[in-house]
Amino acid sequence: MVKASVIGATGYAGVELIKLLCLHPHVELMYLTSQSYTGQKIQDVYPHLRGFIDQELKAQNIDEIDAVSDVVFLALPHGHAVPVAEKICAQGKKVIDLGADLRFRDTSVYEDWYHVKHENPSLSMKAVYGLPEIYRDKIKDARAVGNPGCYPTSALLALYPLIKEDLIDLSTIIIDSKSGVSGAGRSAVITSLYGECAENMKAYNVGKHRHTPEIEQALSEVAGCAVYVSFTPHLIPMTRGILTTAYAVLNSKGKEADINRLYQDYYQNEYFVRVHPAGVWPQTKWVTGTNFCDIGVAVDSRTNRIVVTAVIDNRVKGAAGQAGQNMNVMQDFPIMPGLELVPLYP
Question: Does residue 116 sit in helix, strand or coil?
Answer without folding.
Answer: coil
